[in-house]
Amino acid sequence: MAILKVENVTKAFGGLIALDDVSLEAVEHRITALIGPNGAGKTTLFNIVAGTFAATRGTVRLAGQVLNGIPAHERVRMGIARTFQNVLLFDDMSVIENVMVGRHPRSRANLAAAALRLPWARREEESIFLEAMKYLNLVGLGLAAQQPASALPFGQQRLVAIARALASEPRLLMLDEPAAGLNLMEKRDLVALILRIKASGITVLLVEHDVNLVMQLADWVIVLDHGRKLAEGTAEQVRRDARVITAYLGQETA
Amino acid sequence: MNLRRLWQQRPNLARMILFAVFIGSVPLWARSSQMLSTAIFIGIYTIVTLGLCLLVGYAGQISLGHAAFMGMGAYTSAILSAKLDVSPWLGMVAGVLVTAALAYLIGQLIFNFREHYLALATLGLGIIVFLVFGEVRGLTGGASGLRGVPRLAVGNFVFDADIKYYYLVWAFVLVFIGVALNVVNSRIGRALRAIRSSELAANSIGIDSSRYKLQILVLSVIFASVAGSLYVHYMRFVSPDPFNFGASVRLIVMAAVGGLASVWGAPFGVAAVLLLTELLRKALPLVIPNASGEHTVIAYGIILILIMVFMPEGLTSGLVRAVRWRSSKLRT
User: Fold this and answer.
1) Residue A100 shares a structural domain with residue A211
2) Which of B114, B175, B186, B212 should be substituted to probe chain A, the one whose Cβ sees the most A Cβ atoms within 10 Å?
3) What distance in Å separates the CA atoms of residue A207 and residue B13, rounded to the nearest whole number?
4) Within a domain: residue A87?
5) What ipTM was reported for this prediction?
């Protein structure tokens, strides 16, 4: 079953068409990878699904429900979480606070309860901390909890961002180039982590430049080029597709 | 009891106790009435500054009209208690309701925009409110002000002497410091810091930024309004001047000197600026003959720039860091 359905989505920035009538699906409990050369429209598609941009035309559905018009923060509550290509951690917070703030859509203390530190709000605060620790341990950074987020090396910052996204208990996790800037060891750990995330029942949508990583992880690969869907299929099928080779893989091997 | 452990495990509780002890002791050694009255004003402005710190330091939203919000609390209290004989405490509550309602309305209108419209909106509001204070003479007494504001009292206990009012004001300050600390160290506080850091990132992890900016604006003006009421029942007189644009700027300077994102810095920022104002009032005419209020505003501007350049975290954190840096140098 497709948890995410993108139907005939077009996105124009002024005269520039970033996405041109794109339709695609992400099947539940699978890892779907979105690949394509720079400027293919992958991140734009992420932004439209996440609600950062509105689509010029077309529909986005999560589990059948139309998302158009629903603001970004509300979509997180509905089950869409994302990371950013440029990480975007909260630099003046500690690592654990970054993950705790990710629990926001799954907690409910309001300003009055927080200001008066009501008993239930205090208990909730403790559970936010424990949950956040759980996700931090999942990405292997439990020991770095109290460090300032900005003090971590880049690769670990990416993991904190993933923990922060997981903390919102998403149904769909969108990872925007999670392997960018990682070394070989870190990439291997990342593959294991993403497989564990998949095993926990979360659907993953992945934008990635590292073709090897995509081939290892993806159950389904969608190729975008110049804002259009060029091809899709299993990793094997896509790898052999002549159009894909010329448009994308060809450039890299040439 | 092990004080060291308390300090490590509940640092804010330990600081609160230490602070309360210090506050309680001030009247024992501050014998002159001038000092006690200054301490009362420091307390009143600390309450406004705490609210401003939450808004500016944590949510990243600038208000250039906080003195006007304070004035609204003051005038509501004064009009209700002096003209209509309403209980001063009810007047204080009414002031909070009126001020909060207005802030809510403004926030609703502007927080749907991303940019720094709050600064402009509050600047405009401050000017309008100031004009209303001065021009609606039937209600406010105009530029010459409103007299005969009653004192605060609980039953038969009247807060008439400065020493009584001092303890009353600082009890309020402690409560508001507690509230501010609670907010900062909560889910809401984290959301606010996230918004200040990157609104895009905050929204994409599920934080409704306009909602929290609105809520914190309302909380912040509640602080200001209560402080305004405390001010007016102490002075027993109200006129528009203490709530003009210059006063709003002075509040920003107080918050910045104490440290915008620092709850504990607020009282120190206020004390530093108020004492400096006294100093400037005495020293400036010696340097510039015929120096006026406008000159002190210029002095504030210069101080603000210096603070932002050399101690962006504020006087308190800046000094603490400087001391730590020096002692670590001495050790090596």
Assistant:
1) no
2) B186
3) 47
4) no
5) 0.90
